[in-house]
Amino acid sequence: MSNVKRIGAIGGIALLAALTTAPAALAAKDDGGVISGVIWHDLNGDGIRQPGEPPLAGFPVGDTKTGPDGRYRMTGLQDGASPYIDNGFNGLLPTVAHRGSAATDSDFSGYDNHAGPLTFPKNPDGSLGELKNIDAGFTRPRLDTTVTLTADKTDVREGDEVTLYAKQAALTGDPEQQFPFGVTIQAPAGWIITGYGPGGVAETKIDERTMMVQSLRYSEAKYEHTYQVTAKAGKNGGQAEAWVDEHAYTDTVPANNRAKLGLAVAAAPQPQGKPNPERPQLANTGATPVGALVAGGLVLVTGAGAVWYARRRKASTE
To answer: Which of 27, 48, 207, 233 would you call most buried, defined as having the most Cβ atoms within 10 angstroms of its Cβ?
Structure first.
């Protein structure tokens, strides 16, 4: 075989190999795994999707939203991913997870709103495939939270630092359904909140006497948490308040979501041993009062003696 033929044959084989392997190489490009499923309203809160329980359209899932049928599709995930789904949609919270079959259960935890960690199937080209039926049910909350308010002192004067304690407690509910914890604390009018904690991990100062404090967690039933803020007392007393923050819509009994505490400011005590500026003071001449007292005593004695002598003389002439 001539060199020309040999070179042509080798080139043809290489071209054929390139043409046959290029599609496989392109297909092997991995853009990550995919999950898909449906978001639905779990009307009875049992964690199982049943006929008649409606889909939730427009529900935010990652950077997308569910369609009219409640279905979503999330891409670009890797093995070990634990995708997160939002909560509080129209006052709903995640239902309990893994109560039914793969086709009817909720896969996003009611404890922390995550699914996974996930392990994806592999496509023939080695790329990550799709996990279907990664569903999420949302239901009305079944928790009742309450808040109480106390202070570290009752004998308060203007300028004192007073610590206000707001204790929030979850009274009843499903232990698998989480409740968002956080309160807003307001000092009396004319007071100034100067700090917060321990007890809160995030704070938002609304105005000089009002602060929202949150724990950034969703707490189980029977859980309680105490938040505290420090306030500088003003000239006058008034009413301090604490209430469940913007998550109050998830509570079953809103009536006990607010607490009030009356705080009085005592008048500052008058300084002791100082002259009253409204009463004129006698001038200080430098003389001691002892001489004046002795002289006064002599005058009294002399006067008494004179009276006695006059009476004796009158008696003797009669």
So the answer is: 233
Among 102-106, 147-151, 211-215, the least confident range: 211-215
The Cα 142–Cα 69 span in angstroms is 26
Rounded Cα–Cα distance for residues 168 and 171 (Å) = 9
| CATH among 3.20.20.80, 2.60.40.1510, 3.40.1160.10, 1.20.1440.170 for 144-266 | 2.60.40.1510
pLDDT tens digits, 123-151 = 999 999 999 999 999 988 767 788 999 99
Rg for the chain (alpha carbons), in Å? 42
| Cis check: omega of the bond before 198, within 30 degrees of 0 | yes
Please name the fold of domain 31-139.
Immunoglobulin-like (2.60.40)
Per-residue pLDDT of 38-72, as tens digits, reads 999 999 888 899 999 999 999 988 888 999 999 99
Q: How far apart are CA 209 and CA 196, in angstroms?
A: 12
